[in-house]
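WARN  no MSA supplied for this record, continuing single-sequence
INFO  ligand: NAP
INFO  echoing inputs
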Amino acid sequence: MEKVGKRFIKKVAIVTASTQGIGFSIAERLGFEGASVVICSRKQKNVDEAVEKLKVKGIEVLGVVCHVSNAQQRKNLIDQTVKKYGKIDVVISNAAANPTVDGILETTESVLDKLWEINVKASILLLKEAAPHLTTGSSVVFVSSIAAYQPQATMAMYGVTKTALLGLTKALAVEMAPNTRVNCVAPGFVPTHFAEFITSNDSVKKAIEEKTLLNRLGTTEDMAAATAFLASDDASYITAETLVVAGGIPSRL
Ligand code: NAP
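INFO  complex generated
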């Protein structure tokens, strides 16, 4: 990581769901590039461990417990950030749940509510809370999924919530312009805890690798690099866009 740029010096970045996986790598990348990063997730122990891992790498970091669908914890996340760093330059909305493999018509109402609440509504409510503190030239990135373009049978409703983020990106980019850019990344398949169905099954892993043009799964660092680009001033003329980071798995023209 010594070779990364320094695009986030003096910037303050919040990354949700960032104590492991893609969120952690995004926080690490922004931190390596000079940002003060605010990380969070549901469990204090995970927050503490992730803070330590980032600190030993020389990254300026604040860790806060925040279940993204808890209003009080969302408010606290923003309050703590502003108290410590005085402003917000970057928000990466990365949290998601995928609690069912049922078809959409078989999914219970409470699970439908949970999917909407965590994957879409919480992102909106967090931005409402963050908006008064966003600097001129600030940047928001949503983490969607390749599944947004073609929801798969085993995660259909999850895919639909990720499709909603593509629309949310467009709508909020209009609403938040010109002060704040709003973009989105759509990861392909990355072997994380969330994607246990890949890590736990060699034939699934091989089938997904073969779907890519680059013959491999994505890494959390691949997702972090694309997210950091969109969040940075290198993307200062890009807003309302989704960047697919999926090794060439078909998405759209
Ligand atoms: P992961 O490795 O399982 O990490 C999930 C992180 O989120 C953990 O730090 C977890 O910590 C935290 N978390 C979970 N629920 C939370 C909540 N309600 N509020 C706050 N934090 C929460 O997952 P990942 O694969 O990196 O997924 C990150 C994002 O990438 C998701 O939006 C997912 O949809 C998207 N994505 C992933 C893939 C993939 O193949 N992995 C593909 C496309 C899109 P705690 O347990 O402490 O809360």
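Residues 139 and 181 are 5 Å apart (CA to CA).
INFO  checksum written, moving to next record
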